[in-house]
Structures are given as structure tokens and as C-alpha cells.
Design a protein that fits this description.
heterotrimer, A mainly alpha, B mainly alpha, C alpha/beta, A: mainly alpha, 2 strands, about 0% strand, flat, B: mainly alpha, about 75% helix, Bact_solute-bd_prot1 (chain C), SBP (chain C), Extracellular solute-binding protein (chain C)
Chain lengths: ~290, ~280, ~425
């Protein structure tokens, strides 16, 4: 026994989480680097070097899948952040029916993604869907929301926003509540307008919430799969394919090594985007 | 507040209400109406009043389908959700607490692992390989552990940022009073985390209850079916029975709704009361 | 790994004492959730349990399509497969790695009833038969609405030109000439896959050359035709307006009700019309996909799915007995009774009833005449790319030109060939 007093924050607190995480997440992840270098049928592995990666980059859909992934992630995460903050401000301003609106906005977060996807693909049906019938009602042309190759990805991103903005709003409401009213009072005394108060007080002070919302929704967007799969399965053709769905398709086809290589590529892409962002956020946090 | 301000508030409120109703409520009304239709009526996909209400008939048909599989699915999903969320709260808060309070070189490692957990897409096939090696493949407790492993990073991240708002004085005072680390954590810290814990419970239980892909891979077998997998029953490649499909969506939506209604007051109260008192 | 050995020893012991010990067995059965398949499975298992009260069944359904493929592959590879399961024959069967994952069924007594043409598509690379037929053979071609044809005074086309001429008249009459349903992406492949009879008529050794990596879709004009056809019907504006969002079920409704004149599809779909639109069954006709010349007009044929037993099944003997019984004429008649006669069953002595629906009657003559059928490519070559259905959606929606699409598909099949370890790839 050492004489050093044990820390009141012992590291064994981390142990239960660490064991589960290591065995069921880290080990498979590390193993995936090996399996990505093999031709694998789940029983036998045959080492083939970087062939899977070469194959993957030969896939003509990959480049599109890659850009789609980035577009989708930036679009959903950006819109969730902006609209989430605006909604949170609106829903903490003492509006009539505020409680009801909060529930209404948050509710889609609760619904099964598959269920939402099925519902919206029905609502977006080109001839029978409610959305186009509504447009026709006010004299606008029908839109092929999910059947037009140039539109499908954006339509799904909209549904993602619809479903996910409630969570961003919730995080922001929590963040706003943590801001002391003194700041607003001080700003008001200084004669700041409503808009100035928003930009000078709310936005900087709600920063921790922004970091959470941006990081979570960006990672979620980059990995997004369920909703796309439920709505278009990457179609029409490959036009709404993202990396996760390309990977899944290789997996479905039984190309386990190839699919695992895709996993590694997705991981690298996410790291490439998120790590600099996190570093930037952390640096700014120290500045504050 | 001036009268003009009040009127403007009132008008904004009304507009917001109307927009929210169209955007957020119509899809649910559609689910509900379609769930009440006959098969032919539903297959036209129109947003109309059902020609003939058969909510109850559709309900019993979905329930009875495949030997009351939905009931079994409810049971399984509940076990998985409750087990995993309980562990996520305790283990996640413990990690977040140490991570925030103790600043040493290990912190970087833990924080890196949190990032890894958030970022890295799970490697499905190698995970099956590990689960099989442990004899956990195709078991409910294996599924619980998987959900814990996948949800930990989010829990830790959420707890870490909120623990930062709890003054150290509180735990230091308890330590000086002679409390053991576990006592400090469970008696002092955890109760203070209640607002964020409620959020975490709601968010994670919804996520786990609604998870579709993971049970599909790690829980094959009829006896292990989960609620989301029952959507498969009615989404056959060849014939789609929209009324039953939407009835199933409706039924699958109800448990999260109950959780929400139950916790709603606490979420709003916890957040508007200034979250954590210092 | 001692457990399976124990149970195998136990099973052997039980088998040895024979009639003395009656073992209660529950066989698990994994089937796809296509209503026709469910009807087959329910009627077969009920009859089998009635005859063998000590054997009961636990039926589990899975998704169809690519997602179902994945479930089957994963569960087989991880040793979690049910005792008996149904799955495609041909190239998809080959992708299961059958020589190691599936039980040898070549010595079942009732294999004698099974037509050789079926046995060849459930034979693994080591020459062992590993399945029995489950359902009826199918033709891939074009469903048409007889009433509409009558009204417009059209006759069944023997060449693609005639087909397109019919389409022009149908469009003039204000009807949809060709229904397409790309929400169910698999339905988009028909124009390409069902054209194989015509490919083979022009290039008889295409399948062999294709397997050896010598012939390609993009460089074989006859093989390109399927892709071209898909493009032509789109460019001519012959499709239903909601082709991108319509489903298989919509397609069968449109063609059987006369909303649309044609729908390229497999004949198993007759069961769908029988179940969902029984009143329209009499108006539904069928013809083979027309090709370049009227002299060489014939039908591309799909073999039925197979029933298989995984090699690792703990109830191997009972499962084999059940599967053996499925290959009898009795079982075949039960299937006909359960889901109707949508095509020939590949069991000797299992005859179709006389009063088949008109679409089936349209199909049968192709089978009765020598040289008027050809198996689909997936039964002649193990090489089938997983992305064909996305590529055909692209061509059929005007996203990608036919020539480019064929080249893309040639590239897609490379992966499958490599995974199978075929020579020359």
C-alpha cells in the first residue's frame, strides 16, 4: 500500500463501461482493419492485400456516394442547427401554446425511423401523394420528390430535418435555460435591440449546445442509413446512395471483406471531417 | 410588456401553431387514418376519411399476426431497452464524472475513445464474429450489451458537459465529510444530474426501442423478434397491406409516446428551472 | 464444438432403436414472406404433421429481395440457419457456398421424381444435388391485357418492332402502353433478364463465354438489346406516370385491370392477381419477350426456388425426411391446391389442372414445343452482379444511357466472379 491518498475520482469508475466498449466495439473495429484486407465468406478468409480498397474506388457509384454523404450530412446538420436554435428561441419566448408546440416539434424524434420513412415515401408519391395533391390544389406542378434523380437526396434530407430537429431544439432549450437572465438584463440596459441580444448574448452563450448539436448531427448525417434505406434504398439508381448504403449493399451481396473495407473508408472520412472540427471547437472553448 | 408586444406574440403564436399543425401533425393523422381503413381503401394512399372504420379489426389482425408475435416483440424490446438504458445512465455518468473531474493523461485516452465511439460506424460482420466467440450471438443479453456499447459515447459526452456545470465544491465538501467515492457519486452527483438523466433516458430509450438494423443482425430468430422487426411482417416485397403496415407503425409509436407523456413535465421543468442549480 | 456431435450421436441412437422410441421433433422452417410461399409452407407442414404427429413445425418468415439474401447468407455462415429453408436456385444458390453450408440431398429416395433440369440448378460445384423444388417454374415475359388488345384490335407481337407498334396504338388510345414499377427495384430487370432467350438465339454460347470472362454485355450487340429496350420504352414516353414510385402490386393491378396494356414480369405474379384482383384474372394474358425475328420467338424460363437443409442442422434426419416428402406428387398437388397453378412443377407425374388461368394457358405452349424455351442466364452462369436492379432503374428512368449501363453492369459482375473464385477473372 502506498501512502498516497486514493483519488476521490477513481479510474475504476470507468471499468464497466470500458470492458463492454472494448470487447463489443473496439475489438470488432480493430478486427475490421484485418478483414478489410481479405476476401471473406464469414468462414474462410483469404488475404488479398489492398484489392478490396482498389475495388471500392473503382466503383463508379462510390464517388457519387461520397459526395452525397457529405452533402447530406452538411445539409441536415446545418439546417438542424439553425432551425433548432430558432425554434428553441421561439419556444422559450413565452409564446401562446408553447408547451404544446414543444411537444409537437419533439414528437417525430420518438417515432421509428422506418415508420417515418414509409409514411413520407407515401406522402411524397408522385401522383397519389398528399404533398403533390396539395401542390396541384394551389396550381403548382407535381414534383417527383423521390423519383427524380436530382431531388431524391434532398427530399430525404428534408424528412431527416423533420424528424430530427426536435432533438436539436430540445438541446438548445436546455442550453438557453442555462443562460442567466442577468446577461439579457444587462444587454437591455445597454440598449441592445432584440436582434443584437440574439447575436451578442444568445448565440455565444448557447455555444456548448451548438457544439453538441453540430457534432451529433454531423456524425449522424455522415453515418445516416435507416431513413435513406426506408425511403429510396439509395435510388432511383444510385442517386441517393450514401457511403453507408453502398457499404450495406456490398454486405448484402455477400462481399464481407469489401463491405468491411467500405466501413474503414467511412471511418476515415468521418475522422477527416470531425477531428479538425472538434479541435477547433475545443480551442475556441479555451478562448472563452 | 406593451399591448402591441402582446398582440404580436399572440399572432406569432397562432401562425407557429398553424404551421406546426400542417407540418408536424398531418403525417401522424395520415398514419392514424390509414391504420383505420380497409385494405383496398388504404392502398389508394389518399389522405381521406376512411370509407369504413375498422381500427379495432386492423388492431386485432396485427396483434394476432404470426401467433401474437407483436406481444413477444413488445416484451423483448422492453427488456432490451430497460436493461441497456439503466446501464447507460450509471456507467455513462460514472465515466463522464471521472472524465470531467480528474484531469490527467488518461483523460485524453478516454476522450479519444468517446470520439471513436461516436464516430466509428460499427463493423457489423466482425461484431457477429466476436459475439459468436463469446456465445452472446442471438441472445437478449448480448443485444443489451451491444446497445450499451453503441450508446456509451453519447451518454458520456452528454454527462461530461453537464457535470461541468456542477461546482466541484459540492463533491469536495462531501469528500471532506468522509464520503467514499461511490457515495459521493450516487448520493451527491447522480441526483444533481437528474434533468440530463431524464433527457438521456428519453433519447436513448427511444433510440434503442426504435433501433431496426442492430436487432436485425445480432438477434436473428423468431423468439428474439423486436418491435421494429415486426414492420417486416407487413412490408413484404410482393404485397403491401398498407392498413396493417400503418397500424403497426401506429402501435410501434405508442410506447415512446407514453414515455414522452410520462417524462414530458420533468423534461420541461428540469430544463426551464435553470437545469442545474449551483 | 462437442454439442452438435452429442446431438448427432443421439439422433443416430434414436434412429437405431427405430420404432421403439418416438422422438418429438420440432423442425424450424425459414421461408420468405411472399404470400404464395406462406401458403405453400402452411399447407405442406400441416399435412406433414397430420401424417407424422411426432414432427411439428416452427415457421419463421424473412424479408425477400436483397435483404432476404443477406439474412439467409448471414445465418448460414454463422450456423444459425433454420432446419429447412427456401431460397432461389441457380446463381443465387451458388452464392451460398453450398458445398460447405448445405446438406447433401442427392440420396433422397424421391429425388427420382425431380426433373433433371431442376437438379442441375441446385447442384453445387462438387456435383452434389442439395435441394428439392419448392413451387412452380416461371416464365419471364410480358403480361398483357386481353380485353384491351381486343378493343384495339391488336395481336400478340412476335418481334420487338410489332411490340412497339402496338404500344404506339395503345398510347393513341389514351392508355398506358407499358407499366413499370421502380419502387420495387427488382421489377426493373425484366426487360434485360427476360430477353435471354433472344440473346441465346443470336449467340448460342453466350453463357459459357460470359462465365469465362470472354463475352460482355456491352460488346455483344444481342445482349445489349435488353438495355436498349428499357431505354426505348422510356424515351418513347410509354410508361405510367408514377413509374418511379409504383410497386409490383401496382403493376399487376394496372395490367390486369386494363389501366396499362403491358407489364414485363415473371409468371409467378399470376398468384398475386388471383389473390388481390380475382375478377381480372380472365383478362390477363402473357407472351414471351419479343426479339429481333419472328422465327426465333421463345420464352426465358426461371426454375422454381428450392428447399434446402443446412449441413449444420441439429435435426438433419427429420429435416431430410420432410424435404424428401416435399418432392412427392402428393406434396406437389398440395402446393397447387394452396396457391394455384402458375406454371409447371418440376415433379414427374404432377399435372396441372385443366382449368388454368388464361395467362398460364398462354405460357404452357412454349414448354410443349422443343426449342421454344431457354433458361434465364442466372441458371447457366453463376455470374450475376448485385447492382443490376439499380442500373436498370437508371436506364429505365433516363438517368443513364443503355450503352453506358451495360458497361457498368459488366464491371459490377466482376466482384461476384472474384468472390466465387472463378478462373479468368
Amino acid at each position: 500500500m502506498t501512502t498516497r491518498r486514493p483519488s476521490p475520482y477513481p479510474y475504476w469508475f470507468v471499468l464497466p463501461a470500458a470492458v463492454i466498449f472494448t470487447v463489443l466495439f473496439l475489438v470488432p473495429t480493430v478486427a475490421s482493419f484485418w478483414f478489410s484486407l481479405t476476401r471473406w465468406d464469414l468462414i474462410n478468409t483469404e488475404f488479398i492485400g489492398l484489392d478490396n480498397y482498389r475495388q471500392f474506388f473503382k466503383e463508379p457509384f462510390l464517388v457519387q456516394g461520397l459526395t452525397n454523404t457529405v452533402i447530406y450530412a452538411v445539409l441536415t446538420s446545418g439546417s438542424k442547427t439553425v432551425i433548432g436554435l430558432l425554434l428553441a428561441v421561439l419556444l422559450t419566448s413565452g409564446l401562446r401554446g408553447q408547451g404544446f408546440l414543444r411537444s409537437v416539434v419533439f414528437f417525430p424524434v420518438l417515432v421509428s425511423t422506418i415508420g417515418v420513412g414509409i409514411t413520407f415515401s407515401v406522402l411524397m408519391h408522385p401522383t397519389k401523394g398528399l404533398i403533390n395533391l396539395g401542390l396541384a390544389e394551389i396550381g403548382l406542378p407535381r414534383v417527383g420528390w423521390l423519383t427524380e434523380a436530382s431531388l431524391a437526396l434532398y427530399s430525404i434530407a428534408f424528412v431527416d430535418l423533420w424528424k430530427g430537429v426536435g432533438l436539436a431544439t430540445l438541446i438548445y432549450i436546455a442550453g438557453l435555460a442555462a443562460i442567466s437572465p442577468d446577461y439579457y438584463e444587462a444587454a437591455r440596459i445597454d440598449g441592445a435591440t432584440r436582434l443584437q441580444r440574439f447575436w451578442r448574448v444568445t448565440v455565444p452563450l448557447v455555444r456548448p449546445a451548438t457544439v453538441t448539436v453540430v457534432t451529433l448531427s454531423l456524425i449522424g448525417g455522415l453515418r445516416s442509413f435507416d431513413l435513406i434505406w426506408a425511403m429510396t434504398r439509395g435510388g432511383p439508381g444510385f442517386s441517393s446512395d450514401v457511403l453507408a448504403s453502398v457499404i450495406y449493399k456490398q454486405y448484402q451481396a455477400g462481399f464481407y471483406g469489401l463491405s468491411t473495407a467500405g466501413n474503414v473508408i467511412l471511418f476515415l472520412l468521418i475522422a477527416l471531417i470531425i477531428l479538425p472540427l472538434t479541435w477547433w471547437f475545443n480551442r475556441r472553448e479555451v478562448d472563452l | 410588456m406593451t399591448a402591441r408586444d402582446a398582440r404580436r406574440q399572440w399572432i406569432t403564436g397562432m401562425i407557429a401553431m398553424a404551421v406546426a399543425t400542417v407540418i408536424f401533425i398531418v403525417p401522424f393523422a395520415f398514419i392514424f387514418l390509414t391504420a383505420a381503413k380497409t385494405k383496398q381503401d388504404a392502398s389508394r394512399l389518399l389522405f381521406t376519411w376512411p370509407e369504413q372504420w375498422q381500427l379495432w379489426q386492423n388492431f386485432t389482425e396485427v396483434l394476432k399476426a404470426r401467433n401474437y408475435m407483436l406481444l413477444l416483440a413488445y416484451f423483448n424490446s422492453t427488456v432490451i431497452t430497460v436493461g441497456a438504458v439503466a446501464a447507460l445512465v450509471v456507467f455513462g455518468a460514472m465515466v463522464g464524472y471521472v472524465l470531467q473531474r480528474r484531469r490527467t493523461g488518461w483523460n485524453k485516452v478516454i476522450y479519444a475513445m468517446v470520439l471513436v465511439g461516436l464516430m466509428v460506424p460499427p463493423a457489423v460482420v466482425p461484431t457477429i464474429w466476436v459475439l459468436q466467440g463469446l456465445g452472446l450471438f442471438k441472445t437478449i443479453h448480448g443485444m443489451i450489451l451491444i446497445q450499451i456499447a453503441y450508446g456509451l459515447a453519447f451518454s458520456v459526452l452528454l454527462y461530461r458537459s453537464f457535470i461541468a456545470t456542477i461546482p466541484r465544491d459540492l463533491d469536495e465538501a462531501a469528500i471532506i465529510d468522509g464520503a467514499k467515492p461511490l457515495q459521493v457519486f450516487f448520493k451527491v452527483i447522480l441526483p444533481l444530474l437528474k434533468p440530463v438523466t431524464v433527457t438521456l433516458i428519453v433519447v436513448q430509450s427511444i433510440a434503442i426501442f426504435n433501433d431496426f438494423t442492430n436487432p436485425l443482425y445480432y438477434l436473428p430468430g423468431k423468439e428474439n423478434v423486436t418491435v421494429q422487426l415486426t414492420l417486416y411482417n407487413f412490408q413484404s416485397q410482393f404485397t403491401t397491406q398498407f392498413n396493417l403496415l400503418f397500424m403497426n407503425i401506429l402501435l410501434v409509436t405508442i410506447p415512446p409516446l407514453i414515455v414522452f407523456i410520462f417524462f414530458n413535465r420533468q423534461i420541461v421543468a428540469g430544463m426551464t428551472a435553470g437545469a442545474v442549480k449551483g | 464444438m462437442t454439442k452438435p456431435i452429442h446431438s448427432a450421436a443421439l439422433a443416430a441412437a434414436i434412429a437405431l432403436v427405430g420404432g421403439l422410441a418416438h422422438a418429438e421433433t420440432t423442425l424450424s422452417l425459414l421461408i420468405d414472406n411472399n404470400p404464395e410461399t406462406i401458403a405453400f409452407a402452411e399447407s405442406l407442414t400441416a399435412a406433414y404433421t397430420a401424417a407424422n404427429p411426432d414432427v411439428t413445425f416452427d415457421i419463421e418468415q424473412r424479408a425477400t429481395g436483397a435483404e432476404g439474401d443477406n439474412i439467409v447468407k448471414t445465418r448460414l455462415a454463422t450456423g444459425e440457419m433454420a432446419d429447412v429453408f427456401n431460397y432461389n436456385s441457380g446463381s443465387l444458390f451458388q452464392a451460398l457456398n453450398p458445398a460447405t453450408t448445405l446438406a447433401d440431398l442427392s440420396d433422397l429416395p424421391n429425388q427420382a421424381n425431380v426433373l433433371d433440369s431442376f437438379k442441375s440448378v441446385v447442384t453445387s460445384s462438387d456435383g452434389v444435388v442439395r435441394g428439392v423444388p419448392f413451387g412452380a417454374a416461371m416464365g419471364g415475359g410480358i403480361f398483357y391485357n386481353k380485353k384491351l388488345y381486343e378493343e384495339l384490335g391488336l395481336s400478340v407481337p412476335k418481334t420487338w418492332e410489332e411490340f412497339m407498334a402496338n404500344n404506339a396504338k395503345i398510347k393513341e388510345a389514351g392508355k398506358v402502353p407499358v407499366a413499370q414499377t421502380y419502387k420495387d427495384t427488382w421489377t426493373s430487370q425484366l426487360f434485360v433478364l427476360a430477353d435471354y432467350f433472344n440473346v441465346q438465339a443470336e449467340v448460342p454460347d453466350f453463357a459459357a463465354e460470359y462465365t469465362e470472362n470472354k463475352a460482355k454485355y456491352a460488346t455483344t450487340p444481342a445482349a445489349m438489346q435488353g438495355f436498349n429496350h428499357l431505354e426505348e420504352v422510356f424515351t418513347a414516353g410509354y410508361l405510367n406516370e408514377d413509374f418511379g414510385a409504383a410497386t409490383f402490386d401496382d403493376g399487376m393491378r394496372m395490367v390486369s385491370s386494363g389501366e396499362a396494356a403491358h407489364y414485363p414480369m415473371l409468371t409467378f405474379a399470376i398468384a398475386n392477381v388471383k389473390q388481390n384482383y380475382p375478377d381480372n384474372l380472365g383478362d390477363l394474358g402473357f407472351f414471351a419477350q419479343p426479339g429481333a425475328s419472328a422465327d426465333k420467338n421463345g420464352l426465358t424460363v426461371w426454375m422454381p426456388a428450392g428447399l434446402y437443409v443446412p449441413a449444420a442442422s441439429p435435426n438433419l434426419e427429420e429435416a431430410r425426411k420432410f424435404v424428401d416428402w416435399v418432392a412427392t406428387v402428393d406434396a406437389c398437388n398440395l402446393m397447387i391446391g394452396a396457391a394455384g397453378a402458375s406454371g409447371p412443377y418440376l415433379i414427374k407425374g404432377c399435372e396441372l389442372p385443366a382449368d388454368v388461368p388464361p395467362a398460364v394457358a398462354d405460357m404452357l405452349p412454349y414448354f410443349q414445343e422443343e426449342g421454344r424455351t431457354a433458361p434465364a442466364l442466372e441458371f447457366l452462369s453463376p455470374v450475376k452482379g448485385p447492382a443490376l436492379e439499380q442500373i436498370t432503374v437508371e436506364v429505365g428512368s433516363g438517368i443513364r444511357p443503355a450503352a453506358e449501363a451495360a458497361a457498368l453492369y459488366d464491371q459490377d459482375v466482376e466482384k461476384q466472379a472474384k468472390q466465387l473464385g472463378l478462373p479468368n477473372w
